[in-house]
Design goal:
With 406 residues, the chain is an alpha/beta fold. The protein has 2 domains: 4-176 and 365-386, 3-Layer(aba) Sandwich (Rossmann fold); 184-363, Rossmann fold. 43% of the residues lie in helices and 14% in strands. It contains 13 helices and 12 strands. The chain has helices at 13-29, 65-82, 92-104, 124-140, 149-158, 187-197, 219-232, 252-260, 273-278, 294-301, 332-343, 346-363, 366-387, and strands at 4-9, 32-38, 53-56, 86-89, 109-112, 143-144, 205-210, 236-241, 264-268, 282-285, 306-309, 324-327. The protein starts with a strand and ends in a 19-residue tail after the last helix.
Amino acid sequence: MTRKKICFITTTSITIKSFLTGQMAFLKEHGYDITAVCAKDDSLLNDLPPTVTYMPLKMKRGIDGPSAVLSIFFLYRFLKKEKFDIVQYSTPNASLYAAIASRLAKVPVRLYCQWGIRYTGFNGWKRKLFKSIEKVTCSLSTCIEPDSYGNLKFSHQEGLYTPSKSRVIWNGSANGVDLSKFDILKKEAWRQEIRMKNNISENDFVLGFIGRLDKDKGINELFTAYKSISARYPGTKLLLVGPKDNSGGLHARLLEWAGKNESVIYSGFTTEVEKYAAAMDVFILPSYREGFGSVVIEAEAMGIPVIVTDIPGPTDAMQENHTGVLVQKGCSQSLVNAIETLIINPDLCARMSKNANKFVREHFEQKKLWNYILEDREMLYKKSSSSKEDSNGHTQSQSVDHYGGL
């Protein structure tokens, strides 16, 4: 039986560690030879399945013309040599480089996993520049799979690509939720463990955030809202799970206030997100832009009601007034109102908690998503194989809209 070759390309190893190692192992079990490409990180070898080939490639984040040209050249040379059937790429820089290199190398299936749209966080000339870059990535890809229906619709409206070459797999998300890790049966034990560790009493109402502490995640609005909430409800705590050194664009006075406030708890980075989610009463993601918002469904898996901004991505990760509350992007008062609603309505919180876990089990269970992904990759492989040669045995154009007619 012919082994199908697929190459996963991301800018940094954290994307592979967070979303792709399990998928790689699953596809390997079903007849695929897997290669992972990202910036060098020796620790990645500890996370990758032993049968996956790792090829480090120097890739910088941000805009760096000379570095980009070199990355594209070395990537092109590697892809041309290996003759992959499918190249799958995600994250902004890696996606641009891989789209160009794989097109030059005539890879038949060039799959852009669009896990976010970077330019939506910019204005003016910067927005126009990054939108142009996004269009290049999309135009060179034979198929595009955003991880949310919201971003699929937005991309069609923006003219980034046509419906015929794009779709969302199942209900969206990059990797679903591993319900054996986010185990609702362990919620109470983990809740007590984390609260005791962080000096949080059982009676405290904990508002939680998981992610980068920066402007795009809505941390300015979260701090502003919590200043108001903590003054009215002294029994609240704000638990921030994520690296404290990523504080770009945050207001200095808000940072100073949060740093001096004992009710604001910084846990730092953790690999045990499920335990910290279990310690929360409400999870908040006041982000300006997201591909999907995986932390939303992870919190819901632990039975935590959520508050998210009304933007593409997170709105697909919850059900309004059923598992959580939607708030206006960039509006701290909208956030205050939502938080207060849940604080003063414990019965509503309890209903949303029950609904949240059920919602995730039915819509985002990881292994079920993997089976849909496998089905999709099989379809892409078969379509690309049948389109490579015409009736005379001549190679046809490689730019095939792989979802046409489905």
